[in-house]
Amino acid sequence: MDPSHIDPMERDFVVVLIPCDNDAPVQEVTVHQPAGEAIGCMLKFASKVFSANRLSASQASQVATQMRSQEGAKDLPEDVLAKAAQLDLAEVVPLCPNRAEFGYIGVNLIVDDKGVGKQLAVNVRACGFARSCGLVIEVRGDAFIARQFDNDAGFHRLDFRLSDMASDAPWVNAIRAARGNPDVSLRKDNAQAARDAGNAAFKKKQYAEALQHYESGINAATGAETKSALLSNASACLLALHKPEAALQRAREAVDARRDWFKAHGRVGDALVALGRHAEAVEAYSGALRLAPEAADVQQRLDEARKAAGVNG
User: Fold this and answer.
1) Residue ranges for the chain with pLDDT beneath 50
2) Domain residue spans in the chain?
3) Model pLDDT, residue 123
4) Which residues pair with 234 in a beta bridge?
5) Are 93 and 111 in contact (CB under 8 A)?
6) Is 43 exposed, middle or buried (0-12, 13-18, 19+ CB in 10 A)?
7) What is the pLDDT of residues 141-199, one digit of tens each?
8) CA distances from residue 244 to 158, 198, 234, 250 in whole angstroms, order as listed
9) For tag attachment on the chain, is the N or C end more exposed, with fewer CB atoms within 10 Å?
10) DSSP for the chain?
11) pLDDT recorded at residue 181
C-alpha cells in the first residue's frame, strides 16, 4: 500500500469494550489516533489496557517455556526470552474480514494475547458475540471490537458502536449469510491461508516451500497488516536461503506497506546485517525500537550491530 493512502490525520474513533466482568457494562470507548499512526494505534491502546493484568513470576516462566518451542526462539538467552514473555500485546481476531464483498470494511475482535497465560477468566459475552458471527473461540480477559476500511487503495479507522452489535445489524446479517453459503469460506481468506501454510513450512525449516506460500499470499493480500506480515516472512525465508539482497527488498516493501510495524524495520536490519552493512542496520533497528521500545530481541540485535559497526550506544 502506498503510505500516502493511509489516513494521516490526528483524530478520535469509537470502539466497543466488552469487559470480562459480567457485572460491568459493555460500553463505547473513544480511542485517540495520533497523526501518522492509523494502523498501529488500536493495538497500542489495547495493549496498554491489557497491561493492567500482569503475569506473575510463575506464569511468565510458563509463557517463556512455551515461547522457546517456537521457531526462532530456541537460541535466545534466558533473560531476553523472559523480557519477551512479559510483553503485553494485543491479538486481532477477524469477525468480518476486509474483503470485497463486504466493501473492504473489516470488524475485528481484539484480545489479550496472553490471556491464557495470565489465567484470566473466560469472557462469556465476547465468546458469545464471536459465536454469533460464526467463530467458535475462547476469549480470556477484556476484549474490544473495532472497525476499519482496509484495502490496497487505503486504510482508515471507522467507528464501531453498541448499535453495531445488534443481532440484525447489516454487517452481522451479511457475515451470517456468507458463512451459511457452502461455496464461501470466510474463516480464512486466500492470503491468510497462504500465510498459515508458509508458517507451517517455515517451522519445519522448509524455507523454499514457505517462500512460495508467502509469495502467493502477497499477491492475494488486500489488507496492509496481512501484506506487511507476508512480505516480512518472505524476507526471513530469503535470508535463510542466503539471498540477502532479495531479503532486503522484501523487508523494505514490508515497511512501505506498514511503516508503524516494528518487526518490518527489524527485518530490514537483519538483511543489512547479512550484507555486512552494519551501520545501516543500526539505523533500521533503532527505528524498530522507537516503535516498540520494549522489544528485547530487537535491542539485542541492535547491540550486536553497533558492536560490529564500531558504534557506541
Assistant:
1) 1-2, 71-73, 182, 184-188
2) 3-51+88-179, 190-309
3) 92
4) none
5) yes
6) buried
7) 999 999 999 886 789 999 999 999 998 899 998 888 887 654 544 444 567 777 878 88
8) 39, 19, 11, 10
9) C
10) --GGGB----EEEEEEEE-SSTTSPPEEEEEEE-TT-TTTHHHHHHHHHHTTSPPPHHHHHHHHHHHHTSTTTTTS-HHHHHHHHT---EEEEEEE---GGGTTEEEEEEEETTTTTTTPPB-HHHHHHHHHTT-----BS-EEEEEEEEETTEEEEE---GGGGSTT-HHHHHHHHHHT-TT---SS-HHHHHHHHHHHHHHTT-HHHHHHHHHHHHHH--SHHHHHHHHHHHHHHHHHTT-HHHHHHHHHHHHHH-TT-HHHHHHHHHHHHHTT-HHHHHHHHHHHHHH-TT-HHHHHHHHHHHHHHT---
11) 55
Grid cell for residue 226: 496481512
* C-alpha grid cell, residue 187: 474463516
Q: What pLDDT is stored for residue 189 in this prediction?
A: 58
